[in-house]
Design brief:
Layout lengths: L8 E2 L1 H14 L4 H10 L2 H7 L6 H10 L4 H11 L7 E2 L23 H41 L3 H28 L3 H12 L3 H6 L2 H4 L1
Antiparallel strand pairs: 1-2
Helix pairs in contact: 1-5, 2-4, 6-7, 7-8
Length: about 210
């Protein structure tokens, strides 16, 4: 079975710890911090008529250690640190990552539609891995069932596994065509991946492709 690469995880508790340390360093209580966080986008908040940031809600966030991604951006902006600095897991180069500059008339926001699109593309890549594994297993099982059919006059296995393998094969082809667009496979790579679904057990090779495993 293929092993998927571990993904970095955002450490909300580490962000809160850094926030609290910086708050103490600047000599602010939670009310003062709430005022400064709100003041980062003072012009925009005034134009939108937004209420001041509630110190109580800020304290509850600190105690909870978790927050929404948009709320985290407000804290990160005040710290002048990028979210990549609070990732745990596989190391990645973050020394040159910075948040975009934003004045009092702006507020940093995640571009969620693009984020969701990227997640959906990754979901399809992972889906191809699991379908490739299932297709390879069903292919080998169908071969065994075919041998049993003719050796022992027992066709039930073929009747059951044949349609299952057919559905998995079609799913494999559809997912491979979708994933090809994102990974920019050339026709030779695409044909290789498709051919691996025809060779018994070839799906195991497809599932181990480095570009699918991330």
């Amino acid at each position: 079975m293929t092993r998927l690469a571990a993904a970095p995880v955002f450490d909300g508790a580490a962000l809160i710890s850094a926030l609290d340390a910086e708050r103490v360093k600047r000599g602010l209580d939670w009310n003062g911090l709430a005022v400064e966080l709100y003041g980062q986008s003072a012009e925009l908040n005034a134009r939108l008529g937004d209420h001041a940031m509630c110190p109580g809600a800020l304290v509850r966030t600190v105690h909870r250690g978790t927050m929404s991604c948009q709320y985290a951006l407000i804290l990160l902006r005040w710290l002048d640190r990028a979210p990549e600095e609070f990732l745990t897991g596989p190391a990645s180069a973050t020394e040159h990552v910075r948040l975009p500059a934003a004045g009092p008339g702006h507020r940093l926001r995640w571009e969620l539609p693009r984020l969701y699109a990227a997640l959906d593309e990754r979901r399809r890549e992972l889906g191809l891995i699991w379908v490739a594994l299932a297709e390879a297993i069903s292919w080998l099982a169908l071969i065994v069932a075919t041998i049993v059919k003719y050796a022992a006059d027992a066709p039930l296995g073929v009747h059951v596994l044949g349609p299952i393998h057919g559905v998995l094969f079609l799913g494999y082809v559809v997912l491979a065509l979708e994933v090809r667009r994102r990974l920019q496979w050339d026709y030779r790579t695409l044909l290789t991946v498709l051919a691996e679904s025809i060779v018994p057990g070839g799906g195991f090779l497809a599932a181990r492709r480095p570009d699918l495993r991330g």
